[in-house]
Amino acid sequence: MNSPIVGLRISCVIFGLVCLAHLARVAARIEIVIGFHRLGYTVSWICIILFGGLAIWLSRLAGPWSGQSKAPEAGNRS
Question: What pTM did the predictor assign?
Fold first, then answer.
């Protein structure tokens, strides 16, 4: 396994965990207050879509997680 693939997979896991953290925040109705400002749930919904999409995209770029390469094509018999 080469280092770009490892980097993609690590990034995928990190983005997935951030997505799950925002999903847990929305599900548990946890409020976040910064100074005098409340952070609404809309921000978490946007982050769920953003980080979930990035995790899926990076997972597809990294390829299969099983460690196997792509299956040989049916037309290429030697």
Answer: 0.75
